[in-house]
């Protein structure tokens, strides 16, 4: 495309193919990462849903689980290293909604 002076104009096209009523599930990487004392995992759901959060060690042992119903919107799960008795190391977590959507991340404790 060109502007009125016949200079090239850069355009960006965005086609949103998502159904506005579809389930959207977004999870952010925990922050801070790595962490020493506390960290937070933020997530967004577009529909009310039961959400399950699980934290496991490198051997896959379940260390912490939160399973509850959340309303539509932005939410956060707080992790306290001392309350969970986490040693320095690498851990993994994932969130899953009742419609089967799942996201996983790696977390480092110093």
Break the fold down into its secondary structure elements and pairings.
Layout: E1 25-27, E2 38-45, E3 49-56, E4 62-70, E5 73-80, H1 81-84, E6 89-97, E7 102-109
Antiparallel strand pairs: 1-2, 2-5, 3-4, 3-6, 6-7
Describe the structure.
The protein is mostly beta strands and 110 residues long. The protein is built from 1 helix and 7 strands, in the order E-E-E-E-E-H-E-E. A 4-stranded antiparallel β-sheet has the order 4-3-6-7, with no helix packed on it. A 3-stranded antiparallel β-sheet has the order 1-2-5. A hairpin with a 4-residue loop joins strand 6 (89-97) and strand 7. The radius of gyration is 20 Å and the shape is extended. The termini are far apart. Mean pLDDT is 83; it is low at 14-18.
Largest β-sheet summary? 4 strands, antiparallel
Assembly type of the shown chains? Answer: single chain
**Cα-atom radius of gyration:** 20 Å
Decide which structural class fits the backbone: mainly beta
Distance separating the two termini: 52 Å
Say how many strands there are: 7
Shape: extended
Task: Give the ordered list of helices and strands.
Answer: EEEEEHEE
Q: Unreliable runs, pLDDT <50, ≥5 residues? A: 14-18
How confident overall, as mean pLDDT?
Answer: 83
Report strand %: over 45%
**Count, helices:** 1
- Major beta sheet, strand line-up: 4-3-6-7
What helical percentage do the residues reach?
Answer: under 10%
